[in-house]
Amino acid sequence: MDEAKTSSLEECRAILAAHHKRESLRAVLIHICLIACCVACIYPVLRILAVSLRPGDRIISTDLALIPAGATFVSYLRVFRETNFLIWLWNSLVITCVTSVIGVSLASTAGYAFSRFRFPGSKLGLTLLLGTQMIPAAMLLLPLFLMIMRLGLTNTYLGMIISYSVTSLPFSIWILKGYYDTIPRSLEEAALVDGTSRFGAFWRIVLPLSTPALSIAFLFNFTQAWNEYLVARVVLTDSFRYTWTLGLFELQGQYLTQWGMFAAASLMVTAPVLLVFLYSSKWLISGLTLGGVKG
Amino acid sequence: MASVTLRNIVKDFNDNRVLDNVTLGIADREFLVLVGPSGCGKSTLLRILAGLEDATGGETFIDGTLVNHLPPRSREIAMVFQDYALYPHMTVAENMSFGLRLRRMPKPEIEARVREAAGILQIEKLLERTPKQLSGGQRQRVAIGRAIVRKPKVFLFDEPLSNLDAKLREEMRVEIAKLHQRLHSTIVYVTHDQVEAMTLASRIAVIQGGTLQQVGTPEQVFSRPENVFVAGFIGSPTMNFVAGTLSPEGTGLCFANDAMKVALPAGLLETPPAAPLPVILGVRPESLRPAGDGPAGRQGIPAEVDVVELLGHRKNVHLLAGGTKLLMVVDAAFSPRAGESLQVSFDAAALHFFDRTTTKRLR
Amino acid sequence: MIESLLQVVGFVALLAVLVVALELYLHAHFTQFDKRWFLPGMALGVPALALAGIFFSTEGRPDPGWTISLIGGLCVAEFLVALFFRYYVRGKHSLPIMMLAPGLLGLILLIVYPLIFEVYLAFHDLKLTTVMAWSGTGALPFVGFKQFCKVFVSSPLSGVTFFQLFLRTVWWTFINVVCHVVGGFALAILLNNQIRFKGIYRTFLVIPWAMPQVVAVLALRGEFHSQYGFINVMITRLLEWLPWLSRLGAEPVQWLSFHPLLTCTLINIWLGIPFMMVIILGGLQSISRHYYDAAAIDGASAFQQFRLITLPLLRPVLAPAITLGSIWTFNNINVIYLVTGQAGGTEDADILVSALYKAAFTYYRYSYSAAFAIVIFLILFTLSLLWVRYSKGTESAYG
Questions:
Q1: What is the span of the domain harbouring residue A279?
Q2: Which of these, A267, B164, B293, C5, could form a disulfide with B169 (CB 3.0-4.6 Å)?
Q3: Which CATH architecture is the domain B240-355 placed in?
Q4: Cα(C103)–Cα(A132) distance, integer angstroms
Q5: Residue C195 burial by Cβ neighbours in a 10 Å radius (0-12, 13-18, 19+)
Q6: Domains along chain C with CATH numbers
Q7: Chain B contact set for A190 (CB, 8 A)
Q8: Residue A166 forms contact with C (CB below 8 Å)
Q9: CB nearest B72 (choices: A184, A187, A192)
């Protein structure tokens, strides 16, 4: 206390300067830590890029350069020429789009029912939806696979669509319910008075207002199905029916000879997904933290 | 335009009775204000009338037709909500025309009606904006506009001014009064603000605890409140209440309690009590005056000045008469000091007597 | 390709027709329940329509005995449903139920029914040798609890007992979740400072989460290659540069062959931290600055502020994130299967669920794995219940 009282202006300045120095040192440390972590996050992606650019005779090497000597796009061309990459992408796209549309449409009405109505079993239903998260994927896969096999749907889009369509449904319902809850009820009441039916109020007012949540749910469904591997592994055995995940796994294989093609294909699949994710990450994250669940 | 009849309306939420046997007739072209404290059931009554809520019992008629089982869209009503409830994804024009488009009205007519309503409300320039770009008052106008383009049988207003600031509220109050003069439509208006009720209504219905307390013109409700609740709810500042006994004395009456004894003329009540009766005496703060200030023959109650509040054109004088608190509104020129003793007088005709057990007005 | 696309379009159309049919069916039950013809009309009309649909869509004549029993069954079932709607439902809650119905039906067909089927399988004997007969006739021998006994007696994988697998799973879950939470917490706290380039950092830091898991895992698996993987290359270079390290026993590691579980764990930690970071960061940002100001005035140190303000206020975000994170990690096959799953891959990294996957789809022991799945589910269910009970019990301690 005494010190503080007697300290002159210079001393105060010195203390302030020391404080600033400490603060900026702290900031520098934080930046260093964050940059290190960012490098750890992004380096594997850069390595894929490096491998994909390597010329054919140097695919397997201990070279660590990010742009390898004699970089070429040969691997990219080989992916298109020598593998069914485009077919795999197309398969994935068809399956994923259809399942996402089905999933979001089912969830949009179901979420509304849970958000706006109290009916017998509504609370229990919501809890059970969360409970489905506990079921191991492999557990459901077995009976589902046997059903699909008996229906003769192995190696078909339908088999895949059927197995994917409800996996993301519980979570989508939760996201949409959470969003509907934030829309004031008086909007629907105004619509009712203006002349819509109860469903009309949902269709004309609530649904258009929920486009952010609907896109989050769609993106979620899409990424889940797009990135899925294990179900596809079981249902699809014909290389022409593969989704890109299966194809990529095949390329990676035991031997390193196809590593360049694997890297090129990976990058081509990852880049759009990453861009979409990063572009929409703000909404996506808010949607994910909305219900406080799932990743 | 149409009349509205609510007959024996009962509403239960779970085991909670929100509305208890409410019967209310609203004449054609009448401006009826439902007023009451929050949670009294007034909004529920309005929502039952609108069809947004199902009544547990009773019947609702609009224009003589039973509408109990009709959804809101078939009742030919329009409603203005407390939070305006403008559709955020539509422009002002789209908001206003939404109901007409749903009814598949021809486009030119929709446009004409929207223009007309916008003209009345002076929002022509806002038609292409979205609700987000509007101020509170403008939103309010759009919400009203959305109701009037529909040309409904009945307008319903659910606390439309409570989200506005004080100044804007007064402005919009006048607008709504003008609107009623112009449209001459049946309006049911819910508010908790008794000033709005007094200024707008052609008739007021006071609700409390799910039951109708009194229905009447603003004058009736103010000058002849039916019970203690209405007396206390209508009028600002609130009426003074003093508990005591009313007993016959000689040819007249006498009100007395521990602190005061006031002799009153017999003609005050049509049926004066024959025996001493526990009552509550009510007197409005404006009816109290310092004694010596008015004509002779008035009686004085001795009181001590507690606090004096200056409100500009007048003063609120808080008094203590014995153990009873009294509020007296006086001219700003009158300057009592705190602690000063004075005599308070009043006109006997300005007194209201209520039975202490039933809280009903004594006639 | 065109053909299969047409198939898909046809499927979607069929689905739409089914949804409409379902809604019409429900609508009739909700609105017509008090008509006099309701009970007989529904009990006769609906089976007739259903049968018409079946006959229209299948070729060949089904045998008459089967048809008669089908008609009878449908009539009785529809009569019961109609009774239910007439005397119990009475038109109530029609809209929410109609809006829920398609999704509910999907969940019942694709989650509830498979689960019931799984239980059925677990009490019967379906394996590679009986699967052909089963696809033909649908008949399976009943074996009672034999499959459940086998789960504990003969492990799905050679070399590990069921109990060892279980311990390995618990260990895997514990290590992963702890590292996710600690790592996520650290990054979130770093990011929660007032610093420049925050948005850029955050974008980069969520990349492991944003990447398709298959790509990420396979690429990282490559980096663990004993000769050409990044990690061993780095170790080799380090040894060339500082030769004395090798005398301390440092040498390139045979990650995939000798330490597969460690490899999987490292990869999964890399993958899982961003999610926790995002969740925790969201929680941190929702804590009002005022609490810290008040605490600082009261003289709390930075650590005390963390312990007394940050942790308790993050609880509502953290608790469900940890619960769900644990469940997902427990159930996570992706990483382990992608790293060790190809033919001839090691089984030293397998946890319960990946062993289940292999038992079913590598060894084709269907009924056995059905029983195994039920056991795993029960274990997970019990653990979750205990955990929820425990975390509720400690809630009061945090206030």
A1: 82-290
A2: B164
A3: Beta Barrel (2.40)
A4: 14
A5: middle
A6: 2-92 (no CATH), 154-364 (1.10.3720.10)
A7: 79, 81, 85-87, 146
A8: yes
A9: A192
Chain B hits for A189, CB-CB cut-off 8 Å, are: 50, 52, 72, 79, 81, 85
Q: Is the same domain home to A113 and A209?
A: yes
CA distance B31 to chain A (A): 20
The pLDDT of residue C399 is above 50: no
3-state secondary structure of C234: helix
Place of tokens 């909670």: B16
- B150 near A CB under 8 A: yes
Q: Which residues of A touch C7 (CB under 8 A)?
A: 156-158
Tell me whether residues B73 and A194 touch, CB distance under 8 A: yes
Residue C183 corresponds to which tokens in the numbers above? 């790592």
Contact C157, C355 (CB under 8 A): yes
Q: Give Cβ neighbours of residue C253 (< 8 Å, ≥ 6 apart).
A: C226, C231, C232, C235, C259
ipTM over 0.95: no
Whether residue A293 lies within 8 A of chain C, CB to CB, comes out as yes
List, in order, residues 6 or more apart from B169 with CB less than 8 Å away.
B161
Distances (CA, A) of B121 to A126, B82, B169: 46, 18, 15
Residue A68 lies in a domain: no
* Cα separations in angstroms, C181 against A1, A203, C175, C185: 42, 41, 10, 6
Residue contact A113–C100, C-beta within 8 A: yes
Distance CA A23, CA B90 (A): 49
Domain count, chain A: 2
Nearest CA-CA distance, residue A128 and chain B, Å: 26
The CA distance from C206 to C208, in Å, is 6
Top-ranked range on mean pLDDT: pick from A4-8, B116-120, C62-66, C225-229 = B116-120
Distance CA C10, CA C15 (A): 8
- A257-286 residues touching C, CB cutoff 8 A: 259, 262-263, 266, 269-270, 273-274, 277-278, 281, 285
Asked if the C-beta of B99 comes within 8 angstroms of chain A's C-beta atoms, the answer is yes
Region B266-279: mean pLDDT is 85
Rounded to the nearest angstrom, the minimum Cα separation between A289 and chain C is 6
CATH class of B4-229: alpha beta
Tokens describing residue C152: 């504990």
Residue A51 sits in the same domain as residue A102: no
In sequence order, what are the beta bridge partners of B343?
B302
3-state helix, strand, coil in chain C (%, to 5): 75, 0, 25
Could you write out the DSSP letters of every residue in A32-75? HHHHHHHHHHHHHHHHHHHHHHS-GGGSS-----SS-TT--SHH
Four-residue CA torsion sign, B102, B105, B107, B108: negative
- Determine, yes or no, domain membership for A227: yes
At C6-48, the pLDDT tens digits run 888 888 999 999 999 999 999 988 888 888 888 888 888 888 8
The chain A residue lying nearest B83, using CA atoms, is A186
pLDDT in tens, A77-123: 888 888 889 999 999 999 999 999 999 999 999 999 999 998 888 88
What share of chain C has pLDDT > 70, as a percent? 95
**What distance in Å separates residue B191's CA from the closest CA in chain A?**
17
Q: What predicted TM-score, i.e. pTM, was given to this entire model?
A: 0.86
For chain B, domain boundaries: 4-229, 240-355
- Chain A residues 231-290 with a CB less than 8 Å from chain B: none
Q: Give chain C's radius of gyration (CA, Å).
A: 29
Residue C72's contacts (CB-CB under 8 Å, 6 or more residues apart) are none
pLDDT at position C330: 93
Q: Which chain B residues touch A191 with a CB distance below 8 Å?
A: 87, 98
Chain A residues whose CB is inside 8 A of the B51 CB are 192
Strands B154-158 and B77-80 come out as: parallel
